[in-house]
Write a structure and sequence with these properties.
Layout lengths: L5 H12 L21 E7 L18 H9 L1 E3 L2 E2 L5 H10 L3 H4 L16 H7 L3 E6 L12 E4 L10 E4 L2 E4 L4 H14 L7 E6 L35 H5 L4 H4 L16 H36 L6 E7 L18 H4 E2 L1 E4 L8 E3 L3 E2 L3 H8 L14 H4 L10 E6 L11 E6 L2 E6 L5 E6 L17 H17 L4 H6 L7
Parallel strand pairs: 1-8, 1-9, 2-12, 3-13, 4-5, 4-8
Antiparallel strand pairs: 2-11, 3-10, 5-6, 6-7, 9-11, 14-15, 15-16, 16-17
Helix pairs in contact: 2-9, 6-9
This protein binds calcium ion.
């Protein structure tokens, strides 16, 4: 910063942001959106669980810059994904439609059909400049963007190739820094006469968690989660037959980078692997946090912060040793939940928290509505604009629907669908299994006691079954459609 020191600058921006935007009287400042169309910066990381963010109460790390977004905006306690895996979540976010509608049901199958309607395309048609920078992972070229520069596939942490408007180029350095530099450059070089919508999407902290030298070694002696030694006693075979345990499936040395000390086995080896995994994961998150801070400083310095909606999320949650696992996919809480922070000065009251159930189908209609567009009727999500204003409509959803498809495949998490309400969760695992699980999240937030055969919960189970079928009908899912996505069985 040239003439102002940082403290003076913050004072100045604080006093500026106290001025109502639309001529409202003090106290009404949060009731009316600014007349000028807002810019939208959608920051998404890959596999960053909310329980590795201090604003969500992390016991294992600090994320001061993400906390800053939470302090200056709204934190969503109950944001969930419809299908907890990378590419499907991205397709759901772009379209505002479930996987069985947008067609991208898993990572490995058919590429995303980029000819379909997406929110960036609609914003672009309405006069927004649109950009997609970083992790894309949809196996088809980005569409609906004036500028795009994306990692091929999963991309590399160091000296990554990026495909820029169709042309492959190599960039020296660390991927999280490079993606941030590119995001800043896009904003600097945009047409200032138009609003912009930028998807600024990090690769980190995706497997195999390679931190840069600046952050490497900053996390040590990480506490183990309460469910580290879950024995899956009450669950169906789906939990026992997955292949994502730290003990057995975290690879040496590709995941751990180094070999364990001689003679380690059993619980001692599991504990050692957990430390290696989490040290690297959290060091990668620290770089994301620094870079988001650098981007937020840039918005402040250029005066753009005031009229820019900044969103932070991740494509799904992740197991950080919870239930003895890494990875995601299951409908259990740690991978179902997505972090979601939204800052929009003058519209979203700083330091607020929403407990309403929000789903990643809601992102597209929210951005469209905030930009003043009519939300097309085929979008399945609901705009969270009223929630951002601090009002929960009485008609807001009381349950969300989930459906995961990628099986048989890496990590061997069986196909399942289910319903989650504010208090309960009902899951049906199918294909080569037919098993149901029921959890009371209020009595059992760690989901250790499957209550499916508990007679005290028979009525609740019945109601959840009815509500689940209603949700399936509402979103156009069915047994017939589910069957159409099954792999052809080998004879
Ligand atoms: Ca992911």
């Amino acid at each position: 910063m040239n003439n102002l020191n940082r403290r003076d600058f913050l004072k100045l921006t604080a006093s500026v942001s106290a001025i109502p935007l639309t001529g409202c009287l003090p106290g009404q400042a949060y009731s009316t959106p600014p007349a000028k169309r807002p810019n939208i910066v959608f920051i998404m990381t890959d596999d960053h669980a909310s329980h590795a963010m201090s604003c969500y109460g992390s016991k294992i790390n600090k994320t001061p810059n993400l906390d800053r977004l939470a302090n200056e905006g709204m934190l969503f306690e109950n944001c969930f994904c419809t299908n907890s895996i990378c590419a499907p979540s991205r397709a759901v976010i772009l379209t505002g439609k479930y996987s069985h509608i947008n067609g991208k049901i898993d990572n490995s199958g058919t590429p995303f059909d980029g000819s379909q309607q997406t929110f960036p395309k609609l914003l672009q048609a309405a006069g927004y400049q649109t950009a997609m920078i970083g992790k894309w992972h949809l196996r088809s070229a980005p569409t609906g963007f004036d500028y795009w520069s994306v990692l091929p596939g999963q991309g590399r942490y160091f000296n990554p190739d990026m495909i820029e408007m169709g042309e492959k180029k190599k960039f020296p350095g660390y991927v999280t820094d490079i993606i941030t530099d590119k995001a800043i450059n896009f904003v600097k070089n945009r047409d200032p006469e138009k609003p912009f919508c930028m998807l600024y999407q990090h690769k980190a902290p995706h497997r195999n968690w390679q931190p840069d030298d600046k952050h490497k070694g900053t996390h040590k002696n990480i506490p183990e989660p309460a469910t580290f030694n879950d024995d899956y006693a009450t669950r169906s075979d789906a939990a026992r037959q997955q292949e994502m345990t730290i003990e057995t499936h975290l690879r040496v040395p590709s995941d751990t980078k180094v070999k364990p000390p001689e003679g380690l086995s059993g619980q001692a080896l599991k504990k050692w692997k957990y430390q290696r995994y989490m040290e690297d994961y959290l060091d990668c998150v620290a770089s994301v946090d620094d870079n988001v801070g650098r981007f937020l400083d840039f918005l402040d310095e250029t005066g753009l912060a005031q009229n820019t909606i900044v969103v932070y999320t991740s494509d799904q949650g992740f197991y950080l040793g919870d239930h003895g696992w890494f990875d995601k996919r299951f409908m259990y809480e740690h991978s179902l939940r997505m972090p979601l922070l939204v800052r929009y000065p003058g519209f979203v009251k700083p330091g607020t928290v929403s407990e309403d159930i929000v789903v990643n189908i809601d992102f597209a209609p929210t951005f469209l509505e905030m930009a003043g567009l009519t939300v097309p009727g085929d979008i399945q999500g609901e705009s969270i604009r009223p929630l951002l204003k601090g009002k929960s409509p009485r008609s807001w959803r009381e349950a969300m629907y989930y459906h995961y498809y990628e099986y048989p495949a890496v990590h061997q998490v069986k196909r399942h669908y289910g319903i989650r309400t504010e208090r309960y969760k009902l899951i049906h695992f199918y294909y080569d299994i037919d098993a149901w699980e029921l959890y009371d999240l209020r009595a059992d937030p760690d989901e250790l006691n499957n209550l499916i055969d508990n007679p005290s919960y028979a009525k609740i189970k019945k109601q959840l079954e009815i509500d689940l079928e209603k949700l399936r009908a509402k979103y156009g899912d069915s047994d017939e459609l589910t069957k159409s996505f099954l792999p052809k069985k080998k004879k």
